[in-house]
Design brief:
CATH topology of the largest domain: Metallo-beta-lactamase, Chain A
Number of strands: 17
Number of domains: 2
Structural class: alpha+beta
Strand content: 25-35%
CATH architecture of the largest domain: 4-Layer Sandwich
Helix content: 25-40%
Mean pLDDT: 94
CATH class of the largest domain: Alpha Beta
Largest sheet: 6 strands, mixed
Order of helices and strands: EEEEHEHEHHHEEEEEEHEEHEEHHHE
Bound molecules: zinc ion
Distance between the termini: 42 Å
Length: about 290
């Protein structure tokens, strides 16, 4: 796997571990690292080889797979509504639980690095909110509050590179089923707010996708959420998603072309499916709980 992908002269999309990507944006005066991942890769070293500019670190939200390497930096930016989530996922108890759940097959070096995040001093926290501008010199990044996946989720608008850094908010597969998730309606309203802020030249840099997505994914996800039909949904089994259901759109063409009959089969065959299917939002899915539909 190519661990660092150069998306433009000033943007690097960096594979961290366990299916998570972080993004480095380098302006003329400062650099911004969007999310810090699982904490068990050489991400901090890779960042330091790409830039010697003063570095800011921002968490798009407080989930464990976006924050763990915060400990390698002195301070982080996050929306205040996700600070309780950040604190919970940073606690020793949760860190050990994630270790047992996710890292059993990791290399000893990865395990060692992850465990080091427990012993390091926690970074200082500074708040960001909707409308804030993060000035990197040649690039001014605007924070867009996009509650839904979590209450304090944010997206970042980069008008120089025409990218939106979306964390987990924009993806082909979004979870609105967690205790900390808002309602599906709130999530849709966030996407409806985000979409007019860009034109078709923009691309979405998402935390679980190696390739940028086209803006059409946002429109298709809004439609998918608006169309959620409990009768056409299937039970979604995952330790973090209690009493959850999956609703998806765009599975039929994949059935004809790749013989994929379910979301689980799509997941198994994901490496052989044309990436444009995901880039163009031809397949979108949402995991929800019935109480999030009200
Ligand atoms: Zn998340």
């Amino acid at each position: 796997m190519n661990k660092t992908v150069k998306l433009s002269d000033s943007v690097y999309h960096m594979y961290e571990s366990n299916g998570v990507y972080c993004t480095l944006i380098i302006g003329s005066e400062k650099a911004l690292l969007v999310d810090s991942g699982f904490g068990c890769s050489d991400l901090p070293e890779r960042v330091s080889t790409l830039t010697d500019k003063p570095l800011m670190v921002l968490n798009t939200h407080g989930h464990f797979d976006h924050i763990q390497a915060n400990s390698f930096f002195s301070s982080v930016l996050i929306h205040k509504d996700d600070v309780p989530l950040l604190s919970k996922n940073n606690s020793i108890l949760y860190k050990l639980a994630f270790y047992l759940l996710y890292l059993s097959k990791s290399s000893n070096a990865d395990k060692k690095r992850y465990l080091k995040t427990i012993t390091l001093r926690k970074p200082k926290i500074a708040y960001i909110q909707d409308g804030d501008v993060i000035d990197l010199g040649t690039i001014a990044i605007t924070v867009v509050g996009t509650p839904g996946h979590t209450k304090g989720s944010v997206c970042l608008l980069d008008p120089v590179n025409h990218f939106v850094y979306s964390g987990d908010t924009v993806s082909n597969h979004v979870w609105i089923c967690l205790k900390e998730s808002m309602s599906v309606q709130t999530y849709m309203e966030s996407l409806e707010k985000l979409l007019p802020l860009m034109d078709d030249s923009y691309q979405i840099v998402s935390a679980h996708s190696d390739v940028p997505l086209r803006t059409v994914v946002i429109g298709n996800m809004i439609r998918c959420c608006g169309n959620i039909d409990v009768r056409k949904s299937t039970a979604y089994i995952h330790p973090f998603c209690k009493k959850s259901f999956l609703y998806c759109e765009g599975l039929e063409p994949l059935m004809a072309q790749y013989g994929v009959r379910s979301f689980e089969e799509l997941f198994d065959k994901i490496d052989i499916i044309d990436k444009d299917v995901f880039r163009n939002g031809e397949f979108v899915s949402v995991v929800y709980r019935k109480d999030k539909l009200r």
